From TrEMBL:
<dbReference type="Pfam" id="PF13613">
    <property type="entry name" value="HTH_Tnp_4"/>
</dbReference>
<feature type="domain" description="Transposase Helix-turn-helix">
    <location>
        <begin position="8"/>
        <end position="57"/>
    </location>
</feature>
<dbReference type="InterPro" id="IPR027805">
    <property type="entry name" value="Transposase_HTH_dom"/>
</dbReference>
<protein>
    <recommendedName>
        <fullName>Transposase Helix-turn-helix domain-containing protein</fullName>
    </recommendedName>
</protein>
Amino acid sequence: MGAGPTPKLVFVDRLLVPLIHLRHGLPHAVLAEFLSVDRSPVSAAIRQVRPLLAARGTVPA
Protein backbone atom coordinates (compact mmCIF):
# COMPACT_ATOMS: atom_id res chain seq x y z
CA MET A 1 0.00 0.00 0.00
CA GLY A 2 1.09 3.53 -0.62
CA ALA A 3 3.13 2.71 -3.71
CA GLY A 4 2.12 4.10 -7.08
CA PRO A 5 -0.35 6.78 -8.08
CA THR A 6 -3.65 7.26 -6.31
CA PRO A 7 -6.49 5.69 -8.32
CA LYS A 8 -8.89 8.17 -9.91
CA LEU A 9 -11.86 5.84 -9.40
CA VAL A 10 -12.82 4.18 -6.14
CA PHE A 11 -13.04 0.38 -6.07
CA VAL A 12 -16.81 0.21 -6.53
CA ASP A 13 -16.68 2.54 -9.54
CA ARG A 14 -13.90 0.43 -11.07
CA LEU A 15 -16.25 -2.57 -10.91
CA LEU A 16 -19.42 -0.80 -12.04
CA VAL A 17 -17.97 1.09 -15.01
CA PRO A 18 -17.29 -2.04 -17.11
CA LEU A 19 -20.68 -3.50 -16.23
CA ILE A 20 -22.49 -0.32 -17.24
CA HIS A 21 -20.41 -0.09 -20.40
CA LEU A 22 -21.18 -3.67 -21.40
CA ARG A 23 -24.86 -3.56 -20.43
CA HIS A 24 -25.81 -0.22 -21.97
CA GLY A 25 -23.06 0.28 -24.57
CA LEU A 26 -22.17 3.74 -23.31
CA PRO A 27 -18.95 5.17 -24.75
CA HIS A 28 -15.96 5.65 -22.45
CA ALA A 29 -16.23 9.43 -22.79
CA VAL A 30 -19.83 9.44 -21.51
CA LEU A 31 -18.92 7.33 -18.49
CA ALA A 32 -15.95 9.59 -17.80
CA GLU A 33 -18.16 12.66 -17.90
CA PHE A 34 -20.68 10.98 -15.59
CA LEU A 35 -17.93 10.21 -13.03
CA SER A 36 -16.10 13.54 -13.50
CA VAL A 37 -12.79 11.96 -14.48
CA ASP A 38 -10.69 11.74 -17.63
CA ARG A 39 -11.39 9.01 -20.14
CA SER A 40 -8.21 7.07 -19.30
CA PRO A 41 -9.29 5.76 -15.84
CA VAL A 42 -12.56 4.57 -17.35
CA SER A 43 -10.76 2.80 -20.17
CA ALA A 44 -8.30 1.26 -17.71
CA ALA A 45 -11.11 -0.04 -15.50
CA ILE A 46 -12.83 -1.63 -18.49
CA ARG A 47 -9.55 -3.10 -19.72
CA GLN A 48 -8.80 -4.61 -16.30
CA VAL A 49 -12.23 -6.00 -15.38
CA ARG A 50 -13.43 -7.31 -18.75
CA PRO A 51 -10.90 -10.23 -18.86
CA LEU A 52 -12.04 -11.24 -15.36
CA LEU A 53 -15.65 -11.32 -16.52
CA ALA A 54 -14.65 -13.22 -19.66
CA ALA A 55 -12.80 -15.81 -17.57
CA ARG A 56 -16.03 -16.46 -15.68
CA GLY A 57 -17.94 -16.82 -18.95
CA THR A 58 -20.04 -13.73 -18.28
CA VAL A 59 -19.02 -11.80 -21.39
CA PRO A 60 -17.31 -12.78 -24.64
CA ALA A 61 -13.54 -12.37 -24.66
